[in-house]
Amino acid sequence: MNNKTDLIEYLLRLGDSALIQGQRLCQWCGKAPALEEELALMNVGLDLVGQARNWLDYAAELLDDGRDADDLAFRRDERAYRNLLLVEQPNGDYAVTILKQFLYDAWHLEVLKGLSQSSDERIAGIAAKAVKEVTYHLRRSGEWVERLGDGTEESHKRMLAAIPEVWRFTVELIAADDSEQRLCEAGITPDIATVAAAWQAKVEAIFASATLPVPASPSYFYLNARKGLHTEHLGILLAEMQFLPRAYPDATW
Amino acid sequence: MYAQLVETGVKRIKDLSEMSEQERAFQEKIDSEIKIEAKNWMPDAYRQTLIRQISQHAHSEIVGMLPEGNWVTRAPSLKRKLQLMAKIQDEAGHGLYLYSAMETLGADRDAEIDKLHSGKAKYSSIFNYPTLNWADMGAVGWLVDGAAIVNQVVLQRTSYGPYSRAMIRICKEESFHQRQGYEILLTMMRHGTQAQKDMVQDAINRLWWPSLMMFGPSDEHSPNSAQSMAWKIKRQSNDELRQRFIDQTIPQLELLGCTCPDPDLKWNAETGHYDFGQIQWDEFYEVLKGNGPCNQERVATRRKAIEDGAWVREAAVAHARKKQNKNAA
Question: Could you give one GO CC term from the UniProt record (chain A) (predicted)?
Answer without folding.
Answer: cytosol
